[in-house]
Amino acid sequence: MGKEYFLKVALREAKRAFEKGEVPVGAIIVKEGEIISKAHNSVEELKDPTAHAEMLAIKEACRRLNTKYLEGCELYVTLEPCIMCSYALVLSRIEKVIFSALDKKHGGVVSVFNILDEPTLNHRVKWEYYPLEEASELLSEFFKKLRNNII
Ligand SMILES: [Zn+2]
């Protein structure tokens, strides 16, 4: 199973967030080809500003693997991680992050900040932007509805 497959699983999570009126971002963590956690943005539901999809996916993966480090794991997420999530990925020692839309306003990987390329950090997370039109479309649709007060 390739990147596109995993990004589409993450996209299904993003759609679940959309249905709940959350900013539609979904994330999954994969280890050796197996999905070990899935999450979607739950800031509204949990009343928690840090409940981004990536944070929830990291926590769930650590619980499942009973470890604080996610070495050898990859995170697939529908939107470029923000600064908080990028640094959480560094702390988790995850191997790589793959994202399918850019966040021009808050991106922590390449669009605004470059947290993962920071040479002073003691763990280097590899990253890849793998564009998926559906991922950006879902976000545009959400913000359009928000502007028109449909959500
Ligand atoms: Zn985030």
Structure keywords:
single chain; alpha/beta; Cytidine Deaminase, domain 2; 5-stranded mixed beta sheet; binds zinc ion
Itemize the secondary structure elements and their pairings.
Layout: H1 3-19, E1 26-31, E2 34-40, H2 43-46, H3 53-65, E3 73-77, H4 83-92, E4 96-99, E5 126-129, H5 133-147
Account of the protein in words:
- The chain is an alpha/beta fold.
- It has a single domain (3-146), classed as Cytidine Deaminase, domain 2 (3-Layer(aba) Sandwich), CATH 3.40.140.10.
- The chain is built from 5 helices and 5 strands; from the N terminus they run H-E-E-H-H-E-H-E-E-H.
- The protein has helices spanning 3-19, 43-46, 53-65, 83-92, 133-147; strands spanning 26-31, 34-40, 73-77, 96-99, 126-129.
- A 5-stranded mixed sheet has the order 2-1-3-4-5.
- Strand 3, helix 4 (83-92) and strand 4 form a beta-alpha-beta unit.
- Helix 1 packs parallel to helix 5.
- The longest helix has 17 residues, at 3-19.
- The chain is globular, with a radius of gyration of 14 Å.
- The N and C termini lie far apart (35 Å).
- The model has no long low-confidence stretch (mean pLDDT 96).
- Zinc ion is lined by residues 52, 54, 81-82, 84-85.
- Zinc ion binds next to helix 4.
- It holds the Pfam family MafB19-deam.
- GO terms for molecular function: tRNA-specific adenosine-34 deaminase activity; zinc ion binding.
- Zn(2+) binds at residues 52, 82, 85.
* Number of H/I helices: 5
Q: Tell me the series of helices and strands, N- to C-terminal.
A: HEEHHEHEEH
Percent of residues in helices: 25-40%
Q: What is the approximate shape?
A: globular
- The counted number of beta strands is 5
Main β-sheet, spatial strand arrangement: 2-1-3-4-5
CATH level-two architecture: 3-Layer(aba) Sandwich
| Overall average residue pLDDT | 96
Bound molecules: zinc ion
Which blocks of ≥5 consecutive residues have pLDDT under 50? none
Domain count: 1
